Amino acid sequence: MANTNELYKKYGSTLNRCELFQGMDEKQWNDLLNHFHEEEWPRESCFINHQKFLFHFFIIVSGRVKMYNVDDFSEKEHTLFLLKKGDVFDLFCLLDGVQHQVYYECIDPLKVLAVPMDDLRDWLKKNPAYYQGFLSYAGKMMRMLEENVSQLIFTDISTRLLKLLLSNVDYSSNRLQHINDLPNKEIANLIGSTRAVVNRHLQKLKRNGSIKVSRNKVQIRDISILLKELNNQNKKL
Amino acid sequence: MANTNELYKKYGSTLNRCELFQGMDEKQWNDLLNHFHEEEWPRESCFINHQKFLFHFFIIVSGRVKMYNVDDFSEKEHTLFLLKKGDVFDLFCLLDGVQHQVYYECIDPLKVLAVPMDDLRDWLKKNPAYYQGFLSYAGKMMRMLEENVSQLIFTDISTRLLKLLLSNVDYSSNRLQHINDLPNKEIANLIGSTRAVVNRHLQKLKRNGSIKVSRNKVQIRDISILLKELNNQNKKL
DNA sequence: CATTATAAACTACCTAAGTAGCACAACAGA
DNA sequence: TCTGTTGTGCTACTTAGGTAGTTTATAATG
Q1: A Pfam family name for this chain (chains A, B) (predicted)?
Q2: What share of chain B in percent tops pLDDT 90?
């Protein structure tokens, strides 16, 4: 229990931002955290269809993981979600208890809180009031996936790239976050394209003065140009 | 109550195949069906971002509806789901209570059982044992959306068309079902392409003897050729 | 039966995106 | 400092898929 209190003290601010567990107070958190333990995974750890995720559920407290899948034939990668502090995984397994055919790789050294799936499910059964938070979160996830599908069908690569950039701007500092230190290849994986094509579009944005590019680094120079560019994309059709 | 019993008698076999409400017996169904009423919508009825779906939840007992969305700029359509007997909507709204920006159109004359969203949510709160079915179903839906994303990124139109056809074959009769009477345009909307391109690929399949095409009709001639074709697609890369 | 509407079939063309290959820069480790 | 590795920037080329427009077939309607 001392351990539990410690976890809440250490990570309370992160946990309270966690959408999946909305509206829980410290007492309730401590009750739940009883079943958790802390884990650290080094950078570049990679989990390929690992059983791990069928039996434990994780909350990220620091670092990034990409959840991606790989096409059997072309061996191309596609990053489904770039998970970060406050995100959880694997929700797919939690919901239906079926193994999720998907890969994980740590972009940074990762710290997670881990709980056995069954403990979490039991806790839910005993506290059915929290089912609603899980349902809402599932709904939100479905909307994100649906939005993803729409973008893939309706928009071209340069639009998808612009949207990716704009959706990762921290508007308090006007800085790019989460994806600012990724190589072109990883950016390509996020929008379903290839390094060469993404680079082609980044060059265009560099030339019009909206971004700055260097090795493993993309920085925002002028958001207004990006927004104008996105507007033009739409009008084009 | 007489009315309720009637609903179960009429549609029990459909309801029992409904994944969302797994493991319910007649008594429980009748308890739930108390809140339902029957509705009929004519063919080609169209609902555009209608509040209707925020306040009522529907189970289809006969006919097909497409859930689709439209790109604001290109005005292209994409059919997200072709819902049929035993399917429900709108799960997005049920889960998180937020309006779902999506269109509906009846392909056939439609019969649905309707229940006020809040009644269904109340029923769930009183019968928390059934939450698990809803979570599982949400998980399944997420997997479908994820699979959709993967297909869009990894595979070309001809592969997507082949998969669409093969996933709609009724293997007891070797006949195409659900999509067999759609015009090329609607098939295109299902895989995120255009009428002309879909037609191009259908012609190829017609020429190799795997399908038969006529006005508003696609029929399977030889599944083995389709399967072989799908195999070749994969090897191609 | 004639008229109209809708869908299918086909042709020609255009373009975005994928592909391959190479030179160069940045960085890490020995 | 040397060396191997990884990422960027660029050129040249190929191609699937989107686009536009026309003709032909099929069904529905009066």
Answers
A1: cNMP_binding
A2: 88
